[in-house]
Amino acid sequence: MTPRVGVDVAAIPRIAEAQKRFGDRFLHKFLSDREIDYCGGSAERWAGRWAAKEAIGKAMPTGVPRPRMRDVEILPSDDGRPHVRVAPATTLTGREIDVSIAHDGHFAVAVAVIPDLLSSPAHFPPPLAGEGQGGGLPDGFRLPARPRDGHKGTFGTVVVLAGSQGFTGAAYLASMGAARSGAGIVRLLVAQSIYPILAEKCTEVIVGPVPEISPGVVGHASLSGILRGFAGADAGVIGPGLGRDASTRRLIEDLVPRVAAPLVLDADGLNLLSEHRTILPRLSPQIVLTPHPAEFARLSGLETPAVQQDRRGIASRFAKVWNKVVVLKGAGTVIAAPDGRVTLNPIATPALASGGTGDVLAGVIAGLMGQKLPPFEAAVTGVHLHSLAGMDLEAAMGQAGVLASDLLPQLPRVMERLR
Asked: What is each CA distance from 25 to 22, 39, 318, 375, in whole angstroms?
């Protein structure tokens, strides 16, 4: 049988930034103590081992659990070539694995070859119940299936209610984020007077005008029309750039409980609900909340510094109180589920610190839910894809000047690389 081959590329600046932010506890997630000593503070060596361990995981047969990254140790042999040592009692124990590591500019590239003895899953024990994917992907990460015979209906319909006068970009970015995540159909609902702008800009999105109460503002009078727009939706986004008119708040309070599809509530959708936050626990548990720290503070009634002081604990606590998946955005985004699951995204880059990137994320998460991912998995996957795309753009363009729209074409590339 043919040996199995895996290839991976790791961005050196991404690994260096994660170590700078989280210190040795980040390194200990994927390196042994001996590897840390050998690397001696070299980001190139860290990234090389990350890529090599990812490549090993990719070379393994489908359905076979990967060993933890720390259970695979890569150190130089006497002749200088990388030697792979696998801890006992893993799926790779006793196997000879060949690895090659190279560096080119901002990237570390690795190739792993596993002998043909591993080509059949019959050589491995079955995965344990609840076992994580390993291989460097966060717990809860999952890409939707893309069957070859699928069509646009296969991959879900996402409806986005967003935008107002002066904030048409938020509507564009959220709807295109859903489209770029793989949703089959995206419908964008916008106020009548801004419809011509979005209809011209969003050529791949179905744009529908709804009645407005003032130029660019949708209000409670639009409820019936918007509910018709959400008919048949597999997921939705409500809030980016919507404005904070009192009539818009009444619209949101009456609309959200009546939409059957899973929803992402973002930006002004959250700000409007914060004025009547007691209704949050009564809303569907299929809702994902995506606040930045100030929005979270308004929703929870806390001060922003208190939120930032214990991001993980606070997000987990309110996910249970609200019975919702919470995505507390920022450097080290926290994704918390009502059942106690919590995932911390360790990737941080100033390249994402520009207006509109959060609108893209809201659309990505909704697009993944439209493709049948549960809310927590969609949130974890969306955040990870979004941050990896940001790191790719930082490597290509730099830490400053990356635009939210630059993320859109990068997202499919990231997904394909991970597939």
From this structure: 6, 15, 26, 28
